[in-house]
Automatic annotation (TrEMBL):
Its membrane topology: Multi-pass membrane protein
Name of protein: histidine kinase
The species this protein was found in: Loigolactobacillus binensis
PANTHER family attached to this UniProt entry: SENSOR HISTIDINE KINASE CPXA
Domain of life: Bacteria
């Protein structure tokens, strides 16, 4: 830390004034002691006898006069006092610089950090201040990100609700104004309004589920379950729908039984979403593969299909809420764009991870979960 010219002058004046005061004090003490010794013959004789008693050498070299000895020790004392006063003043100047830097940061310059390299406790204070500013900036950035995320959520929800709501109001308005030619057309209008209402209901339910599972305090009903049997049951529930789309669902798991602890109801929601997506978007595919294999303290579950691959640049965005690979956001394939976001949140609640891979002939959604809930998931190895 560099001192300003004014501070250097103040430090110099501080040293000069201190030296002058100490010299005056020393002189005063010497004069007082000298007069006391001269006025007290017994004290003078005692000092002379002490000098003779500790004479040194064959020639009887005597110690220096008491004034010289006193002066020597007083110089040592004066030097210590001057150093203490100057270093104390210097530390005060350092502290004032730190306070000025702190005020500069507090005025809104959060990109600034205190650059001084000091010693002792003051350096620890500087490091603590810089760490606190870093933490504050990070918290502010996260808060802005959350606010932007909320705004984006509101925008997307408003967009997805407004479209079916406009259709509902439009067709019900035609019915209300008797703008139909026959009962058949009336039923057609009512049917369209009903479908749009169900679409809105699906969005609201998914939104409610998403916000619920996004909360880290969401309770899980943990129990022991056989993952292989769960996949078998879920595959059976989709058998009819898969048959209509000329697709087959196969299940493979190891070991048998594959016992783990998890919330069965929430995990079934994950698998339902993934299989539904495979049926809706696996264009040209004929197979859906469900597999669960235990590796050490984790289980790796895959939901794969041999349909049309997902573009590579879309893989990292699949789990963003309201994101859909198709840009039209049509209702032909259904979906609210929240299914994969919900799946990711449920997997996170189980301390696991989910990601997607897509090659020319196989698209896979991979879920890694600890076998026993509460255990740390091993690090993923990448090839």
């Amino acid at each position: 830390m560099k001192l300003t010219g004014r501070e250097k002058s103040a430090l110099f004046i501080e040293g000069v004034v201190t030296v002058i005061l100490l010299l005056l004090l020393n002189l005063s003490v010497i004069v007082i002691l000298n007069q006391a010794i001269q006025n007290n013959q017994a004290l003078n004789d005692g000092i002379f006898q002490i000098k003779n008693a500790i004479a040194i050498g064959p020639n009887g070299f005597h110690l220096m006069s008491w004034q010289n000895i006193f002066t020597f020790f007083m110089l040592l004392f004066d030097t210590a006092v001057v150093y203490w006063r100057l270093i104390r003043r210097y530390h005060q100047m350092q502290l004032s610089h730190v306070i000025a830097e702190l005020h500069y940061i507090a005025d809104g310059h959060f990109e600034h950090r205190i650059p001084f390299k000091l010693s002792g406790d003051l350096q620890r204070v500087i490091l603590s201040i810089n760490a606190l500013v870093d933490s504050t900036v990070q918290s502010m950035a996260e808060e802005r990100k959350i606010e932007n995320s909320k705004d984006e959520l509101i925008t997307n929800v408003s967009h997805d609700i407004r479209t079916p709501l406009t259709s509902i109001i439009g067709y019900l308005g035609l019915i209300e104004e008797n703008q139909y030619k026959s009962n058949k057309q009336l039923l057609q209008y009512a049917h369209i309004a009903f479908d749009k209402a169900k679409q809105m209901q699906s969005l609201v339910e998914d939104l409610f589920e998403y916000t619920k599972v996004r909360q880290t305090t969401t309770p899980l009903t943990i129990s022991q379950l056989d993952m292989g049997q769960m996949l078998e049951q879920i595959a059976a529930s989709f058998e009819l729908e898969a048959h209509k789309k000329n697709m087959q669902i196969s299940v493979d798991y190891r070991p048998n039984p594959l016992i783990m602890s998890a919330d069965a109801e929430k995990l079934s929601r994950v698998f339902n979403n993934l299989i539904s997506n495979a049926l809706k978007y696996g264009t040209g595919g004929h197979h859906i593969y469900l597999s669960a294999i235990a590796h050490g303290q984790e289980v790796v579950i895959k939901v794969a299909n041999d349909g049309k691959p997902i573009p590579h640049n879309a893989l990292t965005q699949l789990f963003d809420r309201f994101y859909r690979v198709e840009e039209s956001r049509s209702t032909a394939t259904g979906g609210t764009g929240l299914g994969l976001a919900i799946a990711q949140s449920i997997v996170s609640l189980h301390d696991g991870e989910i990601y997607a891979t897509s090659e020319q002939h196989l698209t896979s959604f991979v879920i890694r979960l600890p076998l026993q809930h509460g255990e740390k998931l091993p690090a993923r190895t990448t090839k």
